[in-house]
Design brief:
Blueprint: E1 11-15, E2 21-26, H1 27-37, E3 40-45, E4 52-56, H2 58-75, E5 81-86, H3 92-107, E6 111-117, H4 126-139, E7 144-153, E8 156-163, H5 166-171
Parallel strand pairs: 1-4, 5-6
Antiparallel strand pairs: 1-2, 3-4, 6-8, 7-8
Length: 172
């Protein structure tokens, strides 16, 4: 935004601090009116014909904008992707430990990437791996919804789970 002397046009549509239009007047006249009120003339719509300028306290405006950005950053949630690696011939207890870890990640609000690693000829039994991924999902069905179905990528089968929102839990 251009302020006061930075405004390069001769005439502009000027709006005063109360929102009343003063009409299309020379920029010098608008700056004089703004200076009388102890405010700044700010170009708010340079692409308009003629450009629109507003009389306002520019420092206060910038402060309020930065405050809004800070609040927006505070409310935003960073979602991490946690990975759980399993094997096709995993024992039941080890499987339950991995499920418990994934449940903890989901309750913390993180996504869970389940990677089923095949070794050697195990890849020929991809259907067994798919069944294991679906069993993993069934264990976490109350806390998670599936973002990405189990899919073989190279020697791994990958599935992504995301935490359910409160609305999804109530809807089921």
């Amino acid at each position: 935004m251009r302020v006061n002397e930075e405004i390069r046009v001769r005439e502009a549509r000027v709006i005063d601090s109360n929102g009343q239009q003063l009409g299309i007047i020379p920029v010098r006249e608008g700056m004089r009116v703004a200076a009388e009120q102890g405010l700044d003339l700010v170009e708010v719509a340079p692409q308009a014909k003629p450009p629109v300028c507003r009389i306002m306290d520019y420092g206060k405006y910038k402060y309020e904008q930065s405050k809004k950005e800070r609040d927006a950053r505070k409310k935003q949630r960073v979602i991490n992707v946690k990975e759980v690696k399993i094997r096709p011939r995993i024992e039941e207890h080890d499987f339950q430990v991995k499920v418990r870890n994934a449940r903890r990640f989901l309750t913390d609000g993180d996504k869970v990437k389940v990677t089923l690693m095949f070794r050697g000829r195990e890849i020929t039994h991809a259907a067994l791996g798919h069944d294991l991924c679906m069993k993993f999902y069934k264990e976490l069905e109350e806390q998670a919804s599936m973002e990405k179905e189990p899919k073989v990528e190279g020697r791994n089968m990958i599935m992504v789970l995301v935490p359910r929102t409160q609305e999804q839990v109530k809807g089921d």
